[in-house]
Amino acid sequence: MPSKSSTAGRLSSTLLFGLAAVILVICIVYAPSEAFKASGQGLAIWWRIVFPALLPFLVLTEIVLASGFVRGLGVLLEPFTRRILGLPGLAGYVIPLGLIAGFPAAAATAASLYQQGKVTSKEAERMAAAAHFGSPMLLTVVIGTGFIGSPALGLLLLGIHWLAGFGTAVTLRRGGTIPDSSSRFRSSSTPSVNKGILHLVFSEMRRAQEEDGRSFGKLLGDAVSKSVQTLMNIGGYILIFAVVIHVLTRAWPSFLSQALLSGLLELHLGTYTAAKMALPPSLLAAWISALLGWGGLCALLQVRSILYPAGIGIRSFILYRMIHAAYACLLALLLWKPVMRWFPGTLPAASGISTASVNSDIIGYTLLPTWEQIGDVLRLQSLLLAAILAGSICIALLLRRRKVR
């Protein structure tokens, strides 16, 4: 029987979302043309940035999960991810996927692993929170090149984003805020002195393939169907928040308030508005880094729509995002002068805002990557993911050999 507190919590959340829906409908009816333009902006972001950046990796993840590769990698990396991050070895695939493809792919993978019974709900929640990153396409092509007009600054923002995310995961692990996980969901193949580690890895991969049992045609169809459904949910949130941000910013005429409001609600529109602010490049980099670390309320709801149906909460996400934002802002301020000194002329010294960004209207959002840029970044992301996974495997094998000796 549900407790009174849980029933009251569900009732309050239902009333809150119901009231928000009514207000949204009223705003759309009051200004239908403006709402239509804002929804078109959100649709452009989803179709030209989110969809092509995520679909290949979502489909790939479903295939490698069924092939047993992720579980085999988890057996190999278990001691090191537990020691450093307090996470199961399966995080050795989820976190690199979040780094390269972005947080929706990582959250979907964490949910699949929990549904397969390989991690606890708390482990899945923590893996998704630790792997909550913006994609390289967003940071380098969209923000760096399109919004700010400086690809080098986009690369710097990407490095800061990654370092701050790792620092957040390590800080929470060492700070003792993460309880030890239950062992009943851990991998059934634990390394022992009688079997080599590679034997255990391939044994776990075979077991995963036998448990799945689908043909490749069936697997591919299921992977595409599930991935498109996930992307449709994400697109719905982006469209709704595009309308909400436009309606709310009309009520706050102050430009700073608009930038703060947009950043708190949605990542793409928040960083676009931030790039139009008249700030020194160092402060602009710190501000955008903080927004990237926070991720936006829209991103949190996207992750919730992926994790909640699987029975996974998002209680730790707020803490992760706040620490990530603080670390990213601090790193940007600390690294700006050293990077300017080490790589003179690569970063904007006076103003990092391109003329196109300043003169563009936020409703006429046209600073989107071309299809050629999307293809180039996807190839780079695929190579980076393969390199990170290959490097993780080599390091794990090397450290295990030294440990045996």
UniProtKB/TrEMBL annotation:
Q: Which InterPro entries match?
A: Gate_dom
Q: Which residues form the signal peptide?
A: none
Name the keywords, alphabetized. Answer: Membrane, Transmembrane, Transmembrane helix
Query: Residue limits of the Nucleoside transporter/FeoB GTPase Gate domain?
Result: 49-149
Q: Which residues cross the membrane?
A: 12-33, 45-70, 90-114, 234-252, 284-306, 318-336, 378-399
* Protein name (record): Nucleoside recognition domain-containing protein
Instruction: Please give the organism.
Output: Paenibacillus brevis
